[in-house]
Structure formats: C-alpha cells, structure tokens
Amino acid sequence: MSRPTAAAPARHRLNPRKLLLSKWTAVQPQNREKHFLVTELFCDEDGRVLQIELQAVLNQRSQRLDWQVLENAQHWRMGWK
Questions:
Q1: Domain for residue 6, yes or no?
Q2: Which of 17, 34, 40, 45 could staple 29 via S-S, CB 3.0–4.6 A?
Q3: Domain presence at residue 11
C-alpha cells in the first residue's frame, strides 16, 4: 500500500539571463497591479543573475525580488493574460 505523495508546486523552467523585459501576470493581483515587466537584472561578479526588478505596468511601482519567485506558477503566469 503506497502513501499519497504531496504534489510539487507547479514551476516554470526559466533561464534567468533571458528574463530582461519579459512580461508576467500576477495570479492574485494586489492593489489592481496585475501585469508586470522585468526591467533590470542584478548579477554577482561572475555574471549570475541573483535578483530582478519587477515593475507594475499600471503605476510603474518597482520591487526587487529573487528571480526564482517567477518560477512559482501558483503566483505568476508568463506573459500578460
């Protein structure tokens, strides 16, 4: 008898170097901010992407986040939907 396994959260497979100017939709918008654009990449000395700047299209509010947050399909969708 096998035990039920917890389903892994859905993930996007991303290349962090290709995130610049990519478009994203928040699954659960807050403050009417639904559509976002990656406007900047922050890298370490070796050129590895560590963080991104994500800008809301509605009001241009920016936030700096680890790029891996976009891999969570429960919070983010690729493109503007």
A1: no
A2: 34
A3: no
Query: What's the pLDDT tens digit per position in 13-31?
Result: 899 999 999 999 999 999 9
How far apart CA 42 and CA 44 sit, in angstroms, is: 7
Rounded to two decimals, the pTM is 0.84
The structure tokens 């680890």 sit at 66
Q: Which domain holds residue 33?
A: 20-78
Half-sphere exposure of 72 (CA within 13 A, CB side): 10
Tell me if 12 is assigned to some domain.
no
The DSSP-derived string for 19-64 is -TT-EEEEEEEETTEEEEEEEEEEE-TT--EEEEEEEETTT--EEE
C-alpha span between 7 and 44 (Å, rounded): 33
